[in-house]
Structures are given as structure tokens and as C-alpha cells.
């Protein structure tokens, strides 16, 4: 019986993971559920899935969690805070961890799962952007298997596995014969629009993704194309390609139908791709069942029903500069990706609170990267410091941008 910790259980990926787990009561069980602030939603999930442990990050929610579990007649243990979460992830309450907390807040628990040698279903891409080298090294030393859940990286994982590669082994770098990895991007809700026309787009328009149903932060990241930029850095760490001197081995193609989830090109001229309907339950089922294939509840792809077309176009870096900023941060290395990620989290949060306009997101990120040049980053402490400085600088920079 697989014992699974779902971190970010009240979110979009959390819901998809729990849906797949509930389809396989004979082999999968959610034993730990963790959330940020939504106590009532967490108690309701405990009612449905009856985990042994529930963790709320917000200390203000702890009493309500304990009482909610008691009132529901559940024997689920209530916990609070990062330390408790890390202890549960490391301990024997789970053997598989779905890392689906949003943002840098997910790093401690993701790292703990890697160090403890768990099967790590990694959706929390920000932790790889912030501390990719350390996270991959921790997974290697701890003997963890990483299955990427981001649909593009999950597609690449599947393409590499089909050749007898072992992409779950984090020690494997730049597999022989891989010429290039091409990440596909839907283009988001503003595909085809000019930069000038994006000045007054609303939060509602930005989070209305045409193909995927996701949480608010990643939906805004998809609208700015920062999501694809974070994914380029994520692919670099997971698959050992790209970065300075190796840029040509990671490409991005806009593919509005979101049916081809990414491609791997090989030295012999072969290109393998993974296709499917845009539903994260496929990637989660791959992670939960690998090397077996599990029913995920996702329907079969029918290309004729989908209009019989697969279109591709290059990304527009003029209208969506965040993608260029991410390529530059990967090239600069050191603390630059951590700075990029932290500034972006601050700017996206301000946009969602309607304190800055859409075009101010790349402006704040660019301003922060320019103010805090890349420095070498050998330790977690240095990366945390870079993250902290970038948040401080970006927060100050917000005041200068406003609704432009
Ligand atoms: P959501 O906003 O839907 O969910 C975020 C989850 O994180 C919630 O359960 C939230 O809890 C929890 N959370 C937030 N802060 C903390 C904290 N400090 N401690 C513990 N839990 C916390 O996001 P998504 O599910 O869309 O995305 C999750 C991650 O997966 C992101 O990194 C995203 O980039 C990645 N991802 C998502 C995809 C998708 O399709 N949604 C696709 C690919 C990657 P609460 O709500 O209770 O506050
Ligand atoms: Mg993705």
C-alpha cells in the first residue's frame, strides 16, 4: 500500500492528486494532508480521505483544525507549521510525497522529502528554481526518486523512460544522445497580443487560462510566460541540459492546443513527444504508479474531436519579456534564479491584489535582477539570503510602478 503525503492538499494539484489516489483504494492511501490557511477545506478533505495526519501552516488555524477534526469524529492527528511538516515528510508516515505547495514556501518540505529518500512527485517548481542544485544533490544523496509533475517535465520523463533511461535517478545528467528538449507552452490568455495592448488587462482576464485550470499564481505566471521561464530552469536541473554554453539544448514552442506536452529530440534525428488532454491527473497518475500505468480518470485524446490540428509558433519575447529574463537568469547562474523567483512572487502577489498593473510584473523582476547582480551560491543560507534581499528590493520597487 503506497502511503502518500499530499502537500498543498487544498490547492488545484492537491485536488487532482487526491482524485487519482481515491480511484485506487486497494493500493494508494493519503496518509498526510497539508495546507496553508484553509482550515475548513482541510477538515473536509480529512473527512473524505481519513489521513493519519493533517498539517496547517498558519498557526492561527491550529485550534480550529484540532476542533474540526474532533467534531468530525476523526482520529487524524492535527499539526501546525513547517517543522511538524518536515518531521512527517521525513518519518515513516509516508513513502511518497506530492510536493504541491505554491512558491518558495514549499522548499523545506520538498528538500526534506529528497533527503529522506522518498518518491518525490515534484509540482512545486519554485523550489527547483530557487535551489535546484542543492535539491538534486539532496535527492541523489538521500536516494530519492523524483518524478516531475509539471506536465512538460512529466512528458519529457515519459519520453526518456521509453528509451530505457532512468530519469527518476537524479544522478543521471544529460542522457547520452539527447540533442534537445523542447518545452511547449499554451501561450496563455494573451497569446498574439502586443505589449502595448497588455497595459490594462485585469486580474480576471489574466487568471482565465484557455486550457488549464490552475491556482492563481501559476495562472498569472502562464499569462506573463514567466511560467515557461521557470520551467526552462526546472528542466535544466531535472535533465541536465541548458544553461551557459548549452542554451541550444532547451527550446520553447508555443502550441495553443496544449495537447503535445513537450518533445525530446535525439542525435539520430528522432523526436519523441507525449500527448494527452490538458489534465494534471495524467502526470500525477504517472508519478503515483510508475513504472505501472494507472487509471487517472482522464479521457483518451481524440485528435479529430480536438479539431484535427496541432499548431506551433515561436514565443514573442517582446510582448512577454519574463521568458527572456528567466533565460538570462539561468545563464547568469548563482543567486540569479533565486532573485528572479522571489521578485516574481512579490510582483505576482501585488498584481493579484490589484496594487500593480500587468506590465509592472516584468518591470519589477527586471529592476530587481539589475539591482542585485548574480553572486555565487554554494549553500542554502546564501540562497535564502538572496531570496530575502530580492523580496525586500521588489517590495520597495512596487511603489514606483503602480497601475502601469
Ligand atoms: P494553488 O494555489 O491551487 O494551491 C496551493 C496550495 O499550497 C494550497 O493547498 C495552499 O494552502 C498551499 N500553501 C500555500 N502556502 C503554504 C504554506 N506556507 N505551507 C503549506 N501549504 C501552503 O496552487 P496549484 O495547485 O496550482 O500549484 C501548486 C504548485 O504546483 C505550484 O508550485 C505550481 O507552480 C505547480 N504546478 C501547478 C500546476 C497546476 O495545474 N495547477 C501545473 C504545474 C505545476 P491553502 O489554500 O490552504 O492556503
Ligand atoms: Mg507546466
Helices and strands: which structural class?
A: alpha/beta
Strand order of the largest sheet: 4-3-2-1-5-6-7
Q: Give the mean pLDDT.
A: 95
Strand content: 5-15%
The gross shape turns out to be: globular
Radius of gyration: 20 Å
List all distinct small molecules, including ions and cofactors, that are bound in this structure. Answer: NADPH dihydro-nicotinamide-adenine-dinucleotide phosphate, magnesium ion
The biggest beta sheet, please?
Answer: 7 strands, parallel
Order of helices and strands: EHEHEHEHEHEHEHEHHHEEEHHHHH
Q: Note poorly predicted spans.
A: none
Tally the helices. Answer: 15
Counted beta strands: 11
CA(first)-CA(last) distance: 53 Å
**How helical, in percent, are the residues?**
40-55%
Total domain count? 3
Q: Care to describe what's here?
A:
This protein is α/β, with parallel strands linked by helices. It has three domains: 2-148, NAD(P)-binding Rossmann-like Domain (Rossmann fold); 150-331, no CATH class; 333-404, RNA polymerase sigma factor, region 2, helix turn helix motif (Rna Polymerase Sigma Factor, Chain: A), CATH 1.10.1740.10. The protein has helices spanning 12-22, 39-49, 62-71, 82-90, 107-115, 125-142, 151-161, 203-207, 216-224, 226-239, 281-289, 321-332, 336-352, 360-371, 380-401, and strands at 2-7, 28-35, 53-56, 77-80, 96-99, 119-122, 145-148, 178-185, 250-254, 260-266, 271-275. Strands 4-3-2-1-5-6-7 form a seven-stranded parallel β-sheet, with helices on both faces. The mean pLDDT is 95. Bound molecules: NADPH dihydro-nicotinamide-adenine-dinucleotide phosphate (NDP) and magnesium ion (MG).
